[in-house]
Amino acid sequence: MLTYRLKNSLISSEDSDWKQLVLQSLGETVHPKRANGFCLAREALRECFSHLGIQLSVGELVLEGYSKVTGHDSLTISLAHTPDWGAALVAEASKFQSVGIDIEPMSRVVKPLVLARITNPKDLSLSPLSIWTLKEAVFKAVMNTGLFEKPVEFSSLQISENTWSHESGLTGFWELGNENGMLMAKAWILRSS
């Protein structure tokens, strides 16, 4: 089962905890908008864990790589954020090898040069923003497997009807939706039975 949350606000009573987490994770010179998105994604993550019966404090939102929360190896995760929104996707690691999520404002414009660089000739015909958001989510799912030493090229990822594939033979599934004016893409790889 996939659990996700989308957040655009934090609990203000925990401001000092969030500031400490940002300082510990990103340092002192991080731009305030990046820090806000960082915290929103982690608040979305905390809500996903709460939905699964796991209560975490802000200080416990420490990640191992990009795919796990320290001390919670039974779950695989992915995070995404903009300056004003954060998103998290969580799944049981026993059933899902990896997950990926991306969010983008519906107003975002993907330039033709960027689209040309990321597109695979066999991609499903979708809007430029849909292709971009899906490629980001699939990229995260692929990289969170730990199978690739270097980042894969977006053009090596093929988007088909509800599925995706990488030129290595790795395959998975995807879902696209619109929530609160944000386009959200989720991608995942199921474990073999």
How would the blueprint of this fold be written?
Layout: E1 2-7, H1 15-26, H2 32-51, E2 63-64, E3 68-69, E4 75-81, E5 86-92, E6 96-105, H3 112-118, H4 128-143, E7 157-159, E8 163-166, E9 171-179, E10 182-190
Features:
193 residues; alpha+beta; Ribosomal Protein L22, Chain A; five-stranded antiparallel sheet; three-stranded antiparallel sheet; 4 helices; 28% helix
| Whole-number tally of structural domains | 1
End-to-end distance, in Å?
Answer: 15 Å
Report the portion of residues in β strands: 25-35%
Query: What name does CATH use for the topology?
Result: Ribosomal Protein L22, Chain A
The H-and-E topology, N to C, reads as EHHEEEEEHHEEEE
Instruction: Output the radius of gyration.
Output: 16 Å
Sheet with the most strands? 5 strands, antiparallel
Structural class of the secondary structure composition? alpha+beta
What share of the residues lie within helices?
25-40%
Mean of pLDDT? 93
Overall CATH class: Alpha Beta
Number of helices: 4
**Unreliable stretches, pLDDT < 50, 5 or more residues?**
none
Name the shape in a single word: globular
